Amino acid sequence: QYCTHIFSVLIIHNRAHIIRWDREGAIVMTAFNYNNKSHLANFFYHFGRASPALHGINTSITPASNQEA
Fold first, then answer.
1. pLDDT tens profile 32-65
2. What is the mean pLDDT of the chain?
3. Residue 69, pLDDT above cutoff 90
4. Which residue stretches of the chain are H helix?
5. How far apart are CA 9 and CA 39, in angstroms?
6. β-strands 15-22, 32-33: how paired?
7. Which among 2, 1, 5 has a CA at the least distance from the CA of 54?
8. Long-range contacts of 45-53 (CB under 8 A, 24+ apart)
């Protein structure tokens, strides 16, 4: 798959970071206590309902036609 970006979650003990990676590097969210805050649950809730473009799928890529192949 061709991706414009991806997300990862780093969990250390009771703290979590949400990280957005792209070709330029990474953006790391400030650590938060995922047991006391709903940030992680909210992230997964909204990520699960997001469009493919917001998931990082490059929607400009299309399969080659028979003439192009």
1. 999 999 999 999 999 999 999 999 998 888 888 8
2. 93
3. no
4. 39-49, 52-55
5. 12
6. antiparallel
7. 5
8. 47/7, 53/4
How many whole angstroms separate alpha carbon 51 and alpha carbon 18?
19
- What pTM was computed for the model? 0.81
| DSSP 8-state code for residue 67 | T
Distance of CA 33 to the CA centre of its chain: 20
What does the block give as tokens for 61? 């890529």
Q: How far apart are CA 57 and CA 13, in angstroms?
A: 31
pLDDT for position 1:
62
Structure tokens at 6: 């991806």
Q: Which two tokens stand for residue 24?
A: 């330029």
Which residue in the block uniquely carries the two structure tokens 């997300």? 7
Q: How many residues does the chain have?
A: 69
